């Protein structure tokens, strides 16, 4: 894990799920996932989008900062079908579903509306990959 990620993780845990810097005010989750080949546990700090109608669902956008490849955490979650998440001071198991079609597009558009950096990621990956969107539902 990078020192940068570890600093965010430490700040998240010290401040009841809130962080500063470039993520100040953004909804953050600590995503626990296991390497699909190694079995090693990893923790990734990520932004999420809460479902307005269902408090038991959050959406993760596998943007990888607009890189041409999907992030490893995305591949690990799709393979496992579940993950542990930390939101605020709460930790729970969530079941993972990949969104497709109009549902995926609606959630991605909402995230890009709220956080324009995601629109830039989509422009940078156009013609290379469609950025995946995952729904994590409290188990």
Structure, explained:
The chain has 139 residues and is of the alpha+beta class. Helices cover 32% and strands 31% of the residues. It contains four helices and seven strands, in the order αββββαββααβ. It has helices spanning 3-14, 72-80, 101-114, 117-125, and strands at residues 28-34, 41-47, 49-50, 57-61, 82-87, 90-99, 133-138. The chain has a seven-stranded antiparallel sheet, with helices on both faces. Helix 3 (101-114) packs across helix 4. The mean pLDDT is 96.
Overall mean pLDDT? 96
How many individual helices?
Answer: 4
Strand order of the largest sheet: 2-1-5-6-7-4-3
Question: Would you identify the regions where 5 or more consecutive residues have pLDDT less than 50?
Answer: none
What is the 3D shape?
globular
Secondary-structure element order, N to C: HEEEEHEEHHE
Cα-atom Rg, whole angstroms?
14 Å
Summarize, please.
The protein is of the alpha+beta class. It is 32% helix and 31% strand.
Which descriptors apply to this entry?
Nitroreductase family deazaflavin-dependent oxidoreductase, globular, 4 helices, oxidoreductase activity, 7 strands, seven-stranded antiparallel beta sheet, coenzyme F420 binding, 139 residues, alpha+beta, single chain
